[in-house]
Amino acid sequence: MEYAHRMWGRALGVLFVLPYSYFLRKGYITVKLGVRLCGLFGLGAGQGFIGWWMVKSGLEEPPSEYVQPRVSPYRLAAHLTSAFAIYCGLFWTALSVVMPEPPAESLAWVRGAAKVKRLALPISLLVGLTAISGAFVAGNDAGHAFNTFPKMGDTWIPDDIFEMTPLIRNFFENTSTVQLDHRILATASLVSIGILWLSTRKLDIHPAVRALIGGTLGMASLQVTLGVSTLLSYVPVSLGSAHQAGALTLLSFMILLNHTTRKPSLSLLKSLPAVVKSHNL
């Protein structure tokens, strides 16, 4: 798996450079898009160095023959964060090429989209933070700390969540605290997306935006279900991988929602009617 992961990462670099060179030579890439793509390629190259930096932390001799070598949870989280950042940049760039203007057929829908955006942006950050906290769960093997839900063992809050010193270490290295943090963040993400759905039900917004909000709520519910199922099943690789893929899918929904509700260009705004006529719906 390690070898396949490395080869896959290197192949992605080749799959990026070859078409980029072809489209650049053909003149299909603007200066602005070219600079952005070069930046994303640079981040991709840096991801390889972050990956090696992470792996290097697991090459140290374990303290005993009974201890399994593990990489640093901090470096694992950095590697995952970098991967998600590159993906977000690529996805946003692709959406901007395919959809240079957001779906806006009236000023009323533009105002509605702006209200959705004010809620969607902080929720997106919360979803991203939840995904990153999952890296610390994996890095500390915290998924095996408490395989019960909604309680953690026989209690709601374990007694040892603040046993490490200094206090800040508990949030990143204490297995009980790390799992509790992830549970709280996941629950907060689901509740926040539910609030987003409820608060926008009566807003005058584009049907595509409304459908996206509903899809995001459905994906968030599925992701929480996957997380609980993974926990109760003692973290099998199949469910763990599905849960990680679910995190990326949910983040994709949030990126798409933010992209769809962004402000239109000034020229488009000037051409929009106040409201959409009924026969256009």
TrEMBL record:
Q: Which reaction does it catalyse?
A: Fe(II)-heme o + 2 A + H2O = Fe(II)-heme a + 2 AH2
- Pathway where this protein functions: Porphyrin-containing compound metabolism; heme A biosynthesis; heme A from heme O: step 1/1
Q: Report if keyword Nucleotide-binding is assigned.
A: no
Transmembrane parts of this sequence: 35-55, 75-98, 119-139, 182-199, 211-235
* Needed co-factor(s): heme b
Q: Which UniProt keywords apply?
A: Heme biosynthesis, Iron, Membrane, Metal-binding, Oxidoreductase, Transmembrane, Transmembrane helix
In Swiss-Prot or TrEMBL terms, this protein is called Cytochrome c oxidase assembly protein cox15
Q: What species is given as this protein's source?
A: Stylosanthes scabra
